[in-house]
Amino acid sequence: MADADCVVVGAGFAGLTAALRLRQAGRSVVVVEARDRLGGRTYTETRADGSYIDHGGTWIGPGQDRIYALMAELGIASYKQYTDGEAMMIVDGRTYRYRGTIPLSMRPWVSANLGTAFLRLRRMCASVPLAAPWEAPKAASWDRTTLAQWLTGHVPVRQARALLEMALAGTYTSAASELSLLFVVYQLASAGGPDFVLGVDQGAEDSRPVGGMGAVYRAMADRLADDVQLDAPVRSLRQDSTGVTVCCDDTQIRASHVVVSVPIAIAGQIRYEPALPLERSLLHQRMPSGAVLKCHAVYPAPFWRDDGLTGQSAAPDTAAAVTLDACAHSGGPGILAVVNEGPTARTLSGMEPRDREAAIIDALARRFGPKAAAPVGFTHQDWSVERYSGGGMISHAPPGVLTEFGPALRPPCGRIHWAGTETSSVMYGFVDGAVRSGERAAREVLAADAA
């Protein structure tokens, strides 16, 4: 007799969504989470003053209908990212203040090169079937090409190439030389194209939940009552003709089905008996996460707003590669998010925390002025060393992986079902994609029971 109809491995957005939908369909569910907290690759700290900091996934945007629907169901409102001012871009030591997507005051050939690259990427995205990107007309050649090779061949202006490399490769928390071009185009296409993925207003960083992402995942966990077990890493899944035995350190749970919602590389650390089909097993070895370091500088007030700035800035090859206004919906205190990804994140990760903080604050002061040199608080979240995240906020495909092993991303392996934002053909890499994947996995379980 089963202890539960379904065990969900992982208490991030994908796992909690799958569990919630199964519970609503009348199934018994147990969620097991290796960490001592909820949220997975999202993690919200609520501060004593009522403000909140999202150390992981943070933003939502138009077209992300499933996370918005979930928030409406749970009674959680959203608020717009602050954009009432100018953004900054620093290239070769020169600062450009601008509104919109591209600083038009840059040298004309730089702006033109960026615009041409965006146009090419849009056209490439239109040719990719989201359910099966490995069937795109140019899938074979694109999957043999790295993003770095494509940028070198199609973005001849060095400054434009550096900005695009930071923006695109940074999205996947890895160096451009690590990324399959097919994967990059597929991920961009899954979200509607580069304008959305790299955009703020009406883009991927358009809005935030009031209370941070934690307001959403805590509300889901509340509806699951006591059926969420923390500090319970899954060591093995033993599958037979009647069910699956889930083995943690201190307990075993028998279920009719299991939904595995952890990052792909982390799923590969579980022992499967019998072994998974070869393509799925090899996929676990071939889709790593990158490196991302997300820090927050806290100030008494968001002084940059008074200076006519949005807080959004980009500066390749600095200790503060990307910054964004991260204030709570109340507007205070002033919280500036600093995001470093890929090689820069790896370098900073190897530094002592005090030296890392000093380097980042120095970069902020050079960019935003002396007020930025005196934060009243500073946080570090190094996802690169998170044991149960495996690195950055998104698993990526190196060259050759999607065309060889991509078809194994979503199909169940017997009674084991797969969730996680990487398994979503829409909004891959976003919290919305995680929600979609959890809902799909729940539908698969229900359909299997009905068969």
Note the topology.
Elements: E1 4-9, H1 13-24, E2 29-32, E3 44-46, E4 52-54, H2 65-74, E5 78-80, E6 86-91, E7 94-98, H3 108-126, H4 139-143, H5 147-154, H6 158-171, H7 181-190, H8 194-197, E8 207-209, H9 213-223, E9 228-229, E10 234-239, E11 244-248, E12 252-260, H10 264-267, E13 271-273, H11 278-286, E14 292-299, H12 303-306, E15 309-314, E16 322-325, E17 334-341, H13 342-349, H14 353-368, E18 377-382, H15 401-405, E19 416-418, H16 431-450
Parallel strand pairs: 1-2, 1-12, 2-9, 6-15, 10-13, 12-19
Antiparallel strand pairs: 3-4, 5-8, 6-7, 10-11, 11-12, 14-17, 14-18, 15-16, 16-17
Helix pairs in contact: 1-9, 1-16, 2-16, 3-6, 3-7, 5-6
Provide the descriptors you would attach to this structure in a database record.
alpha/beta; 35% helix; FAD/NAD(P)-binding domain; 16 helices; Polyamine Oxidase, Chain A, domain 2; single chain; Guanine Nucleotide Dissociation Inhibitor, domain 1; 451 residues; 8-stranded mixed β-sheet; 7-stranded mixed β-sheet; 19 strands
